[in-house]
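I am hoping you can look over what I have pasted underneath with an eye to the fold:
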Amino acid sequence: MGGKWGRLLTADRIVVGLEATRNRDAIRELAAVLQNDAAIEDFKSLLTDLMRREEHGWTCIGKGVAIPHVHEDTIKTPRLAIGISRQGIEFGASDGQPIHLIALLVTPKKHQTQHLELLAALSRLVQVDEVRLQLIQAADAAEVLEIFGCIGK
């Protein structure tokens, strides 16, 4: 597992201590880590597509987790960004819980199967109580990477 996540997630794509308190602001804050990423050809389009995707239904999966995601032509290679909110973010989750963990997944449109596989794997991973709680309580990006198994892989 570490190898897969290691290709998608790096320390500069992790925000421990998101400041936003509302869903759209949180997505913007986290997406900002991808703004100068060479894999993202058109950041403005990416952000627009993320917001449009959220209009069709918030991407909360319960237990304090949201996974906003998009796949589009302006993305060259998959990227994962992780945001952790200590205070919690109002996302309108069906279970009524504030969001403490946001996993933002972006992939090239031509890789729809890979997008679905990554989304499913990410969903399964953060549904494991121990993993989710470790991520939410992580002190810094290095700890998040360690949890994902990215260090030394």
About this structure: The mean pLDDT is 89. The first strand starts at residue 14 and ends at 16. The chain has one domain: 2-148. The domain at 2-148 is CATH 3.40.930.10 (Mannitol-specific EII; Chain A).
